[in-house]
Amino acid sequence: MTPSRLAWAGAALLALGCRHREEPRPTPAPTAAAKVSCTPRTAEKLGIPFVRVCPPGEPGFWINAAPMGCSAGEHEGIRCPPTTPIGHPVGTGGPLHSSLAAVTDHDTAARLCYFRMGGHVASRAERSKARAAGLATVLVTESDASPVRFRLEEAPEWVTEEAGEACENGLPSETCHFGWFPSTSRSTAIRWPQVRACDARFVAPPPADTALAPLGSGCAAATWTWPPDGGSVALPCALKSPARNDRGEPVSAAFTFSCVAPVARTHPEGQDVDTAAYRCVLPESALGTFDPDGG
């Protein structure tokens, strides 16, 4: 083989070796799911419990585990309905106790969330995502008609209509748009004398003889009578869980209710047309050392 042919063959082999050399593969860009890290947790701020809601593919946010509450002393002078806060994440632990929800105007709610808690009133989108994760505020009311009928409905809560509205000032109504959650609810729809204080307990699966009632409906109790001792007694119907699994399907489980018999004390008179309960959403930094899970 001539020198020119040898040189050509060497160049060809060199090129072939370069062509088959294992090139370093570029690192794939992280997917949206990989970029998001969110674990449902619990924390406290000023003794008030908060939970972290983690919608799929989103970083999550912190929101009150129950509507902001009022004390028994406040209840003597202002309307504070007994509500049953359904917790998150759904568990099989002890009962979820009835609590008195603070009912106020939207400006006061926004100021308290900002100046006291360092956050903002939940937006409609945030409240909807929290409800899909299992957070509901249940009002149990008893009808005056016969047969007795118990109704399970959501307590009206304030929300801002758009996320990120600038409510962090002394006059929130000038910079924010407020509405009720659910959108069809109004405080005036609460039948105050018929509201009952009820504890809830999670059961899975629900008992075969328990009638399930979604939020906004109820059950008739044809032979219902309250115990003569005035204690707590289980209702004949349960609430279907508002929580959903990872595939977005409703969880086939229920919360049973045990309610206290009517008491002589009634709610004080008050103006209700522009009042509702509310929950605050906090930035992670506002929780600080109150987060028992460390972040």
Written overview of the protein:
- With about 300 residues, the protein is of the alpha+beta class.
- About 15% of the residues lie in helices and about 25% in strands.
- The chain has 6 helices and 17 strands.
- Strands 4, 5, 7, 8, 11 and 14 form a 6-stranded antiparallel beta sheet that branches. The protein has a 5-stranded antiparallel beta sheet with strand order 1-2-3-17-6.
- A hairpin with a 5-residue loop joins β7 and β8.
- The longest helix is centred in the first third of the chain and has 18 residues.
- The N terminus and C terminus are likely disordered.
In short:
The chain contains six helices and 17 strands. The protein is an alpha+beta fold. Strands 4, 5, 7, 8, 11 and 14 form a six-stranded antiparallel β-sheet that branches. A five-stranded antiparallel β-sheet has the order 1-2-3-17-6. A four-stranded mixed β-sheet has the order 12-16-15-13, with no helix packed on it.
What's the SSE pattern?
A: HHEEEHEEHEHEEEEEEEEEEEH
How far apart are the first and last residues' alpha carbons, in Å?
74 Å
Low-confidence stretches: 1-24, 30-34, 290-295
Class derived from helix and strand content: alpha+beta
Figure out the total of helices: 6
User: What's the overall geometry?
Assistant: globular
Beta-strand fraction estimate: 25-35%
Instruction: Please give the number of β-strands.
Output: 17
